[in-house]
Amino acid sequence: MVTIKIILCYLLVLLQQDLQIPSNPTLLQQDLQIPNNPTNFVNDLAGVIDAQIESLINTKLEALSTNQGVEIAVLTLSTIRTYAPADVARDVGRKWGVGPKGEYIGDPTRNAGVVFLVVPKTQHSNNKGECFIATGRGVEGYITDARAGKICRDIISTHFRSGDYSGGIDKGINNLIALVTQYQEKANAPSPPPLPPFKFPWTGVLLGLMSLGLMSTFFLWLTARDTANSEKARSDYLETVIAGL
């Protein structure tokens, strides 16, 4: 039994080494030379974003953080070696503390953070580009994996294929901000006014009953009159017949 445990542990170590699964974010960041703290909302370590576009994106993301309580960190790396982009983005998000901590448990702004990871397709990345958007619990309800994947796969991929990383990242950020804004506008929209309490239409019911009663009385009176006239006519007819005999 002990031998089996040793073999399993050895295989696990080999597997971890082959897949380069980080045991903690610090080791991964050291391996990829990622700084312990972000320099700004945009951290262009791969050097692919135009300075003017980078400044513009930083301004947008600062306003988003201040006014809407959502933090987005952009990170470009020249390579992530054989690490999975999801692991890199999530570990960076934890290490940098992307997303507000929230004032209380259940605060909707708690962990409302996003890491937008881009690895340009160059020789450093073995000509394999990567794009991954990792979301914290505070935003994953509306920036879903499907929506994040669509941004990377469909919306900005044409920019990346042509080498326009500045335009692609800026467009991706605009889409993320739009998702945040749409969700918050819908969540903060005023509720429709409550329906007025139901009031039984007593007046209408009483008027209806009175009308029905009058109509019934009139109908009975007509019936009685017609019956009386018929009886009288029959009586007169019988008297005439008898008189003729």
Features:
245 residues, alpha/beta, 4-stranded mixed β-sheet, 9% strand
Question: Can you summarize this structure?
Answer:
By secondary structure, the chain is an alpha/beta fold. 57% of the residues lie in helices and 9% in strands.
Describe this structure as you would to a colleague.
The protein has 245 residues and is of the alpha/beta class. It contains eight helices and four strands. Strand 2 (71-76), helix 4 (85-96) and strand 3 form a beta-alpha-beta unit. Mean pLDDT is 81; it is low at 10-23.
- Summarize model confidence as the mean pLDDT: 81
Figure out the total of helices: 8
Query: How helix-rich are the residues, as a percent range?
Result: 55-70%
Category by helix and strand content: alpha/beta
| Morphology | rod-shaped
- Poorly predicted tracts of residues: 10-23
Strand content: 5-15%
Rg of Cα set: 40 Å
Number of distinct beta strands? 4
For the largest sheet, list the strands in their spatial order: 1-2-3-4
Terminal CA distance reads 133 Å
Q: Largest sheet, if any?
A: 4 strands, mixed
SSE topology string = HHEHEHEEHHHH
Task: Annotate the secondary structure layout.
Elements: H1 2-19, H2 25-32, E1 42-44, H3 51-68, E2 71-76, H4 85-96, E3 113-119, E4 130-135, H5 145-155, H6 157-161, H7 165-188, H8 202-244
Parallel strand pairs: 1-2, 2-3
Antiparallel strand pairs: 3-4
Helix pairs in contact: 2-4, 3-7, 5-7
